Amino acid sequence: MQITTPDIGVDKATVAEILVKVGDQIAVDDSLVLLESDKASVEVPSTSAGVVKSISVALGDEVSEGAVLIELESDAAAPSVTAKAEEKVVEPAPVVATPEVVAPVVASQSVTSAVVDVQVPDIGVEKAVVGEILVKAGDTIEVDQSIVVVESDKATVEVPSTVAGTVESVEIQAGDTVKEGVVLLKVKVAGAAPTATVPASVASSAPAVESVQQAAVVTAAPVATGAVEITVPDLGVDKAAVAEILVSVGDRVENDQSIIVVESDKATVEVPSTTAGVIKAIHVSLGQSVAQGMPLVTIEGESAAPAVQAPVAAPQVQPQTSTTSVVSAAKVEVAPVQTTGVDKLTKEQSVENAKVYAGPAVRKLARELGVVLAQVQNSGPHGRLMKEDVFAYVKARLTAPQASPVAAAAPAVSGLPKLPDFTAFGGVEEKVLTRLQQVSIPQLSLNNFIPQVTQFDLADITELEAWRNDLKGNFKKDGISLTIMAFIIKAVAHLLKEERDFAGHLADDGKSVLLRNEIHMGIAVATPDGLTVPVLRNPDQKTIKQIAVELGVLGQKARDKKLSPKDLQGANFTISSLGAIGGTAFTPLVNWPQVAILGISPATMQPVWNGQGFDPKLMLPLSLSYDHRVINGADAARFTNKLTKLLADIRSLLI
Questions:
Q1: C-alpha distances in angstroms, 94 versus 197, 210, 238, 315, 410?
Q2: Residue 29 in contact with residue 23, Cβ under 8 Å?
Q3: 190, 115, 174, 128: which is closest to 155 by C-alpha?
Q4: Residue pair 585/456 in contact by the 8 Å Cβ criterion
């Protein structure tokens, strides 16, 4: 029995790994071969149980749908026999010549359909849990439409469909654990062959008919053209910056070819074209902030197949008894799609790359830059190579000392200079940053462009703490941890409704402040991997108890690495607390595009002068950092002063 390459959604893929060897006993659905394309990595499962008799592919081979991968010896006692259907040849029946008779020959429309498996793509982890199923049997879906949400301890990912059609069945359930290659849906995909009409004229003279053979021409539908606007897809974040424009006006692009690279603080995404054609206009520029639905480029679109003319031979007409119509099918050769990428690696180097754990986009980048991945130091989870690793490798090679003297490069306009060599001072030991710390660096670097000032103040929370101690016993019975943070959040949310600038954003043109209609507060949470900031929605509309409950849930999700992208989006003010760690004050960094952040340090008992003597008071240090382009120093002082009064007497919230 032969195991062949299934429909993997691309014309060709490379054999990245062979997961079995000759003599292995395998079961149904055991993974046999790992295939890589520029779009995804797919593990091909076995469709039968048996023993591996032979392996028909090698690492680095390019395969397409139907190519033989593995030869299996079935477990069944009797050998598997494949019956080959005999081709039945129908000879044209004799035709009686009839004067002035025109017989139209019509090729009936042939509609074909197939059921395609939509599988789990390479999501960067070995296993993930199905968190949500977004479609059901009977639904009509489009290419790239999100169908399933899967969650791992690292991230939540919406899996898009690779085909368009009707959902035949859903093969998984919410809560199932899945991995790359597992079938999610079965989708019925339909296609139709165009109707062709061949006019066949019959001559009136019998002797003349014997020597006449007519040629009919079947012309495919003309190429469909028209301007198509490619827009920003759903990236899982409110906004992202254009990091790279991969095409120019006049370039011809293919369907699914990457055209723009956008970056957020969470990920870098290549936006593909949804059609083939020629770039007519580019609507974005480097560094521009874009959101879902914004136009990126305009493409003069065209259909996938050009018009094809194929000669069709008409049957000879014989002066016999019956009349019949015959159509001979024309075989049309479709020219292979021209690839647009540039492969700078030899076949041997490509084989070496196939042995390294890396995603399709990283492999494509390595091929284009001529990088052998085996020489690159990985930093991703489970030894996975990331794009940043390739860029770092290339940068190191480009900046390495040359054998011949070269002119010193001018220092960069921005950024820090290269580190000196510490070998003479005892050397160094490298400690790799966590993935969370690495992806936070670009976002934190944005603070270099914000003129930040910090306003310090002290709040008397003596009575507030006493009230909290009275309440926390009953809260604890309900399994709720009542911390001082719940009261601070409630007070700040109340104040932000009055001081709306502090929860706004500076417009891109620098001429106005965008005032938000709702309050969504980021709460910084320390985890073993670094700092993360989940968002508490509408705290101004919630009670202290509701806020305390949600704080506990968000904090636990952060520590368990179960925060979804939506849990991290949309904040317009942030609070960062050092808790009981220590310290007297600090200057938190404004988290762009926000304009303010409140830092909370540990409260301490301090002597406070009452006019006649000193009273012991529990004083809470406040550190309000703000963007000076939007907020003046007097406004910041007024804000913290109002906040200290609210915390000193929380009852004023009711007035």
A1: 21, 12, 71, 10, 86
A2: no
A3: 128
A4: yes
Given the residues 382, 494, 520, 628, select the one marked as catalytic.
628
Q: Are 160 and 146 in contact (CB under 8 A)?
A: yes
Whether pLDDT at 348 is above 60: yes
Asked if 7 and 117 count as a contact pair (C-beta separation under 8 A), the reply is yes
Residue environment code for 312-339, b if the CB has 16+ CB neighbours within 10 A, otherwise e? bebbebeeeeeeeeebeeeeeeeeeeee
The DSSP-derived string for 288-323 is -EE-TT-EEEEEEEE-SS---EEEEEPPPP-SSS--
pLDDT, residue 220, reads 39
Using a pLDDT cut of 70, give the percent of the chain over it: 74
CB 489 within 8 A of CB 547: yes
Closest C-alpha among 510, 529, 560 to residue 439 = 529
Reported in sequence order, the residue ranges of 524-649 that DSSP labels E, i.e. its strands, are: 525-527, 530-532, 535-537, 573-577, 596-600, 604-609, 614-627
Residue 442, SS3?
helix
| Range among 7-16, 285-294, 554-563, 613-622 rated most confident | 613-622
d(CA 336, CA 148): 33
Taking a C-beta distance cutoff of 8 angstroms, is the pair 107, 198 a contact? yes
193-225 burial by CB neighbour count: b if 16+ within 10 A, else e?
eeebebebebbeeeeebeeeebebebeeeeeee
Question: How far, rounded to the nearest angstrom, does the alpha carbon of residue 35 sit from its chain's CA centroid?
Answer: 19
Residue 187 identity: V
Q: Find out whether 241 and 263 touch, Cβ atoms under 8 Å.
A: yes
This prediction has a pTM of: 0.41
Asked if residues 491 and 504 have their Cβ atoms less than 8 Å apart, the reply is no
Out of 222-226, 361-365, 555-559, the most confident range is 555-559
Mean of pLDDT values over 391-397:
79
Query: Could you write out the DSSP letters of every residue in 172-228?
Result: --TT-EE-TT-EEEEEEEEEEPPPEEEEEEE-S-HHHHHT---EEEEEPPPPP-EEE
DSSP designation for 287: T
| pLDDT range class, residue 193, cuts 50, 70, 90 | very low
505 is catalytic: no
Residue 358 · residue 371 · CB < 8 Å: no
Q: How far is CA 525 from CA 69, 149, 505, 555, 622, in A?
A: 49, 25, 23, 6, 18
- Average pLDDT of the chain, as a whole number: 76
